[in-house]
Amino acid sequence: MDEKWSGDWVAERLGVELVGDGELRELLGLALRRNPKRAHLLVSNVLGKHVPQRPSVVHGAGHELGERVRDLLGETEARRAVVVGYAETATGLGHAVADGLGVAPYLHSTRRPVEGVAQAGGFEEAHSHATSHLLLPERPDLLSAPDRGAPLVLVDDEFSTGNTVLNTIRALHERYPRDRYVIVALVDMRSEADRGKLAVFAEEIGARVDLVTRARGTVRLPDGVLEKGVALVAAHEEHPPPAEPEPRKDRPVPVRVELGWPAGVPDGGRHGFTPVHRAALEAALPDMAARLADALDGVRRVLVLGFEELMYAPLRLGTALEDATTAEVRYSTTTRSPVLAVDDPGYAIRTRLVFPAHDDPADGPGERYAYNVAGAGFDAVVAVVDSAADTPALHAPGGLLDRLAAHTDRVLLAVVPSYVPSPSPVERQEAAMLSAPLRGPAFSSYAADEVGWLLQDLSDTTLEAPTEEREEAIQSGGAHYAESLPVEYQPTAQYQELFRGALDTSAARIARAVGTVTETVLAERGPRPVLASLARAGTPVGVLMRRWALHRHGIDLPHYAVSIVRGRGIDANALRWLAAHHDPADVVFVDGWTGKGAITRELAAAVAEFDGFDPEIAVLADPGGCVRTYGTREDFLIPSACLNSTVSGLVSRTVLRSDLVGPHDYHGAKYYRELAGTDVSGLFLDTIAARFDEVADAVDAEAKELLAADRAPTWEGWAAVERISEEYGIHDVNLVKPGVGETTRVLLRRVPWKILAKRGAGADLAHVRLLAEQRGVPVEEVDGLPYTCVGLIHPRYTRGATGASGTAVSAVAEAATEAPAVTGK
After folding, report:
1. Which intervals hold domain PELOTA RNA-binding (predicted)?
2. Measuring CA to CA, how many Å separate 436 from each of 387, 452, 741, 765?
């Protein structure tokens, strides 16, 4: 008895007939769409979308069509051609056709708009559930056709009525007229009436239009088939048999595999893919496949599962995996196309997994599907997504990874970096003049992947000046604080012990704040924010946020450190580099804490001159009420504030001086390699990260509460600083440093006058009291203070305000020596 054809179920119930070439039924099955515009769906067995197939078969089908196109065009015209594939179904097929040509660039249409990339064309697909196609090439001239040359090769999985292709050619011909088009499809299913349209259209536009297909045929539809199909779908979904097998209870935990995707190679053809890109990818595929094979050791049957438009990258990983392992490898992808599932040998879609979209689609949330995966006997699934889709929703209960884990022994996740198009030629030239970020161990004691420093290395330059000299120059207007560095404070053994004790005591509280601010950022600025910490106080926080995202969600966030200088603004060259390598809208600025909010205001003013950047800043602690994205608004001891470079990767504060920083330079900083013996940067990070699991439940609750709350800045801290400045006769808010972190900086770097401490403040001020004692600075306990403490820099400073030892003296002739307690009025 012959094996059932996977279109029998539909054919028997709707009277649909598939007539054509001998291999037509081997290539196609039938299913029912959940779409009122068309009842039936031709399900390809070699496309790799709905039906898992050997990757080599899928790629080979497209490659063979591409070879035929090359033979049709000839070598010279093939080199001038551009290949365009259709989203989402034919993005991989079109890319394989371009591989067959071998010498042509490739572009596919997309339904994912990309901010900052100009649209070079678009068209509609009338019968589709998601109709709008965008063309977003990185190179504006990719689709141009000088002298009407450069043939355009259009690739779709099926050529059914021809309307989509005609719409495409009509739209593109108006902007980029050319003399020749080639239409490529696996199957040509047009009716006789539709075949005539193409010839008429070609004559109308004055161009040659050729057709290359693997098989030809037609679908014969009886009268009323659309209504019958809609009714059949409705009846079946009202009382359906199970569309997926019983899920397993002992679900495996998904494991991330780092591919080592080659730098600069796009994840697909959304913005263009050139022969140079192809050569780089081919060279890298064996190594990436080896990594997957190592992670799949012992697996017998594996599915490489792509993601919607991301079809080519997982397909090529699959073909390479076939060569790297003895396992049976199959390939298919998820889709946004809703199709009825019927577990019958005569039906093409046997099972359906349903999960929510996880790439923040432009048309809003919705269901997504993986067909013929459940119950197919795969003992491992490799889910391949781009980084834009590597979001919390992917990892959430009920998300794709969770749904896959219910039906296989092993789930691997491989993330391909989403390609970011280069900026304009002028911006590219400017960015090319900027150096790549500095990374450890050459610069800083942080690991290379923890942070990239958008700074220039001034380690061999003498920049330090005695604290008293710096203070006098700053207050007299003779110098800016960023033009020199204070001598690095070397903590005593007693102070180091105090730091370690404070770290142990506060680690859980800090971990909780790290988790809360990171979850808030992921929820509001996802799916893949780029962290830009304000060097240097923000950098340890940025590293911790990155670690939280990786630990809790498997999301590897890019992290850079940039310089901002009060009164001088942010490093413009650092922003230009970020804009050239990332979407500015994804950049989230990070700092350690807020004091009175001066840097918050400075940042807002600075980034206003640059398109696309969001001036909002995320901080670990916001005691001043200056921001809306924070981990806590408590003013407590963050141990990284206790020290200078030895808790910040051995990097100095940043320097901006005209004789050192030119128009195409980053701000500068020093790497104090000689302090490696006292470096506690790693200890600080590891101690806090070790508490992540402990605080996870509390973080989830706090983040949920914060996301629903009114977090508008109150600027309470700024008001308190202004009040203190007047009441203590200082009359300069820049000399009032509120909060534990800022007070510590005053004691370490400036000439302190006195410390105001909230009455009853305990362990959070132990290090402050010790430093104040060492420097002879009085600590006054006051009532009504909105901060745990406030540091006052010596007003109207001259070097006579300190004794020979550098400690503060008890009286200052030009400053008020008596001041009322802060009452909180």
Report:
1. 715-794
2. 22, 8, 31, 40
What would the pLDDT profile of 661-720 be if each residue is shown by its tens digit? 888 889 999 999 999 998 999 999 999 999 999 999 999 999 999 999 989 888 887 888
CA distances, 452 to each of 40, 561, 672 (Å): 52, 6, 17
Q: How far is CA 791 from CA 6, 780, 786, 814, in A?
A: 77, 10, 13, 19
Alpha helices in 622-690 (DSSP H): 681-689
395-453 confidence digits (pLDDT tens): 999 999 999 999 999 999 999 999 888 655 555 555 556 788 999 999 999 998 899 99
Classified as helix, coil or strand, 792 is strand
Write the DSSP string, 182-208.
EEEEEEE---HHHHHHHHHHHHHHT-E
> By C-alpha distance, which of 34, 131, 93 is closest to 367?
34
Query: β-strand 629-632 against 617-621: which pairing, if any?
Result: parallel
pLDDT interval class at 612 (50, 70, 90): confident
Stretch (H or E) spanning 679: none
If DSSP states are collapsed to H, E and C, what string results for 231-259? Answer: HHHHHHHHCCCCCCCCCCCCCCCCEEECC
Confirm if 399 and 377 have CB atoms less than 8 A apart. Answer: no
Q: What is the DSSP letter of 422?
A: -
The answer to whether 315 touches 306, Cβ cutoff 8 Å, is: yes
Entry pTM: 0.57
- Give the model's pLDDT for residue 330: 98
- Kindly state the tokens that stand for 482: 């960023």
Q: Which helix (H) or strand (E) holds 126?
A: none
Classified as helix, coil or strand, 782 is: strand
* φ/ψ (deg, to 5) at 415: -110, 125
Segment 444-499, tens digit of pLDDT? 999 988 999 999 999 988 877 665 555 555 555 555 556 777 777 677 787 788 78
Q: Which two tokens stand for residue 673?
A: 């390699």
Residue 400: what pLDDT?
Answer: 97
Torsion region of 370: left, alpha or beta (phi above 0 gives left; psi -120 to 50 gives alpha): beta
Which H or E run includes 212? strand 208-220
